[in-house]
Amino acid sequence: MTIVEDVLLQDPDLTHRFTRGEYQRMAKLGLFENKRVELLNGRILDMPPQDETHVTAVSNLLEFLAENLKSHRVRCQAPVSPDDYSEPEPDFAVVPRPTKVKKDHPATALLIIEVSNTTLARDRAKAAIYAAAGVKEYWIVNLRGRTIEQYTSPQSAPEPHYASRQIHKESGTVQCTVLPLPPLPVEDCLRWV
Q: What confidence tens digit (pLDDT) does each residue in 66-119 have?
């Protein structure tokens, strides 16, 4: 880390926090062309390339969600807009089916799932963003740990967080608390990974 980076991290008031509007205008100008980025808490972060294990786990989950959630919309690797300073692109966001055409990304979801291979710390940090937005349940599929972390009961005070966090091992199952999904064997999610 450079001295400048160290100073900026110690004093966040010295850095500009980008808003979603600024971020979207930069994207329209082509500043992120051929780049995968997301906006988190006013910072524009690169997203690492997806390796085959990530793609396989996403495909496994897509099959499970598509088979079992006909009455909801499953958004795959599409933005959500939980606040004015964040526009993450989770691997899955399950939202109610819209009754009319929307012009913006959803601000919240019933369930958000991130598949994490190299971004575990970032995905855990997103829990505060999702809890503040009222996302009812959040899963992190931890490919390296071969577990699913399940976060439930979003709280807004004193700081946004989830009151409950459970770790489901590869030999176990995870049961969604907010959607009519059957229990998911963790090993099915990690199949061929």
A: 999 989 999 999 999 999 999 999 999 999 987 777 778 999 999 999 999 999
Other C-beta atoms closer than 10 Å to the C-beta of 19 total 16
Paired sense of beta strands 161-169 and 147-155, if any: antiparallel
> Span 51-189: which CATH code?
3.90.1570.10
Angle subtended at Cα 30 by Cα 24 and Cα 34, rounded to the nearest 5 degrees: 105
Whole-number Å distance between alpha carbons of 26 and 154: 32
Taking a C-beta distance cutoff of 8 angstroms, is the pair 119, 96 a contact? no
Helix H or strand E encompassing 128: helix 120-132
- Which tens digit of pLDDT belongs to each residue from 36-63? 999 999 999 999 999 999 999 999 999 9
